[in-house]
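User: My collaborator sent over this chain with a note saying "see what the structure looks like." That's all I know about it. Can you take a look?
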Amino acid sequence: MSQHCVWVYGDHVNTDVIFPGKYTYTLKSPEEIASKALEDLDPAFTREARPGDVIVAGRNWGCGSSREQAVTALTGRGVPAIIAASFNGLYFRNCINQGLHPIVCPALVEHVRTGDEIELDTARGYIRAAGRVFPIPPLPPSVRAILDAGGLMPMLQVRFGGGR
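Assistant: Without extra context I'll predict from the sequence alone. Here is the result:
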């Protein structure tokens, strides 16, 4: 269980907004990519987001292209989870592969505002926010293992001896 400050965004936030496409071929390191997270949508996020902050979003978060930088930008900022009404399927999978916990909880979206604090307890399956408790679905054990390892590559490196 942990407390998190939230940043709230709407429906259909696409990967080009999460990580501006103009940087796709010029920025390479995770630190450079993270420095541009949500730059065009919310300059305040770029300046003020802190490790541990969580994104709460509307429907179809991560639609658009399959660029992995749209997840790397957020993990590099220290975002441990995105809670959304729904996700684009490919973005959802990219989150898991990079160790960013995607949580589907449509009921929460209309009850929080940017700057609110929430309590997130994925082990017990709930989010406490705005004086309410919102249940969240448990993850399959295989997905939980990937997230606990910090992503798919770290999990495979541990299991198979360092990625030959």
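A starting point for your reply to your collaborator: The chain has one domain: 2-138.
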